Amino acid sequence: MYYQPDIETMSREELSKLQLERMKWSLSQAYENVDFFKRSFDGAGVTPDDLESLEDLAKFPFIVKQDMRDAYPYDLFAVPMKEVARIHASSGTTGQATVVGHTARDLENWGDCFARGIAMVGGSDESTLQVSYGYGLFTGGLGAHAGGEAMGCTVIPTSSGNTKRQVQFLADCGTDILACTPSYALYIADTAIEMGYDPAKDFKISGVICGAEPASENMRQEISDKLGVQYCDVYGLSEIMGPGVAMECAERGGLHIAEDQFYCEIVDPDTGEVLPEGEWGELVITTLTRECTPLIRYRTRDVTRIVSEPCACGRTHRKIDRLRGRTDDMLIIRGVNVFPSQIEQVITAFPEVATQYQIILTNKGPLDHVELHVETEPDYPIDTVRKLEDLKRRLEAELKANLQVAVDVKIVEPKTIERSMGKAKRVIDKRGEQA
Amino acid sequence: MILQLTVFLQNEKGTLSRLTRTIADAGINMHAMFLADTAEFGIARIFCDAPEKVAQMLTDAGFRAAVTPVNAVHVPNEPGGLARLLDFCNSADINIEYAYCFKVGDDTAIDVFKVENENIDEALRQAGFRIAEPEDIYAF
Question: How far apart are CA B114 and CA A285, in angstroms?
């Protein structure tokens, strides 16, 4: 039921004590070995000795993504290279890649964090784990792999792609748990159905561990129903570690943070002030055990809140709520903040519409114009113009009511919206492109 | 009832030719085609041989295609041929969703129409109309 019961069900008091002890170590590890933290702490007039309680962390300066890019490749490493066992790097699609190093101990801790999630979906050392995240610099594949090995699972490292083969392994190899992005899980399920299987009945699979991109409640439900599985949402980011920073138990209602490894704060994204517990804001993470790349107050840009009510599963570690979006993925449309996840939530409430969608932003004169491309489900009657236009109007009205922004819905032919192997490209922002 | 092939198309350059090319390459003969269009999308309504097979083939090729049962009636190719049929529908409170007609030979035409309540063949027969059978229009 638990992977590390002594840690996962530790009393809050003991856990806070452990966190403070580790936080002191982590601040020193950063301050004494990484020039960036030496300079930034000195600039803010603080030293690790100023930390007497967990709340004192608020006195320390933040580190942001750009600082990590500037430190490329190794300037944030706190250990000599001979102790670095592996490096991972973010894709760098939005700028210089960020490189994160891991010692052997860091990798071991990572495996433990992910293995806790495997137990959350009922996995054990008797389970077969199919890892359909991409392997490589991206942390998804190797992170899930490490979790499977830590648990003692039989790991099938299919990586992403070659979807028919993925289905074949699900069918033939008795996979119990599948780890991949939610859009890929859905694609695998749809491919299996197209191949003539009913995955919920025909396959042994009982759990999925999905992360690395947002998924609405309805999309999760669709994955659970089509595959006949318990859905575990996994949170992680390559800067901090990778998948496993927080994972969702069977009770749902949030993802348990691995609080013995990470300390989470929620701050106001504009002022940086720490917000009272339970309020929505930007997640800030401090690593407590990481040797190679300790990060103190890393601003994740992810918008969530802390859920501190005791969980019926017995784990004492607090949860983060399902991410509402990213502060920098947040679309500002005609001055209104819109998260793609909100749009997805509306779409998936329409059973006539497939969950694949794309948002296209353009300028129409001085105004932003939002076009949403959707496909109808295969069994939706396409014969009457009236019904199609009615569907479009209902969808538009619902979007307008939910987002406070007018959205132009366009029903497109199937397969016009690109299916994804990794992260789905949901938003195409062409604003500013036109002359 | 006649099975009509229905295909959803985006109202964009090239989509109709892609459709007809796909049907042609499968060696399927079309007997009639009508296009309903809106600013953003169109619906191609087609009479062709083996409509169910073609709908499946188009679906596999990535089209949104389906078969739709429609009513088809032989009428004389003369003034009032269609009007008499529609008068009847009106008096029988049959609401028509869409309709189209085409001429067969010199003397007759086929009027095709889609109604909410599909099962009106018997009512039409009793009123003296000659229902078109699938074999009048396409091969299986």
Answer: 62
